[in-house]
Amino acid sequence: MKSFASLLSAAALGAAMLLSPGVAHAAAPNYVALGDSYASGVGTRTYIESSGSCQRSTKAYAYIDAGRIGANLTFVACSGARVADVTANQLSSVTSSTNIVSVQVGGNDAGFSSVITECAKPSWLGDCSSAVANANAIINNTLPGRLNSLYSSIRSRASSAKVVVVGYPRLFNGTDCNAGTFFSPDEMTKLNATANLLNSKLSASASAAGFTFVDPTSKFIGHAVCGSPEWINGLSNPVSESYHPNVTGQAAYADLVQPAL
């Protein structure tokens, strides 16, 4: 029979092992995903019913990446969101306990959806050049201030969180294969240049805030509308699915964003 002293020693050793930091498990990080329809997963055609008109999808990159890294996801991205909407309706989810934030917003501030609609018309019916010029003016003159304010608010709410700003792909490869749209080569070039301009402003504001910028441009080359394979939907039914990443496109985004998280 073991002595009373040896039993006490064994008990003490067991207690020490339980209290040892070496056997503690790290808590799952808290990840908040902010943004617009590109962030929510519009284009994947499969949405979380409770998300309603925000159209959040389990196929969206934030949902995929949260599963990969074992994070607790607060998914508040919403279709149609502008910077002001993120500030008013989503920002409150970012708190001092937030470890990771992704944010993808700015395209709707530039009215990109209406620009695409205008440029898709026959040249005699639409004015693509003016629509693109107006969008570029907003991106150059108005959007940076909005982004700087939003990014500052994110940082003030979560001072130590890793923040990742996500950009937008070019929509076109130079070919319009969709019946019902009339994009000329020049119009597609202009629209791609607008995507480049938008990314440049997102990147600059992210850098100024000390955030990481993820640029999807190179990864999506060859996989835009009419690409092979196509990662961005062309004109679709319902029309709201148009010009958004499909399931494969969101998976590509997930591969891009995950290392930055």
TrEMBL record:
Residues 33-252 form the SGNH hydrolase-type esterase domain. The keyword Hydrolase applies. GO terms for molecular function: hydrolase activity. Residues 1-26 form the signal peptide. Pfam families: Lipase_GDSL_2. PANTHER family: LIPASE 2, SGNH HYDROLASE-TYPE ESTERASE DOMAIN-CONTAINING PROTEIN. InterPro entries: SEST-like (IPR037460), SGNH_hydro (IPR013830), SGNH_hydro_sf (IPR036514). This is SGNH/GDSL hydrolase family protein. The keyword Hydrolase applies. Keywords: Hydrolase, Signal.
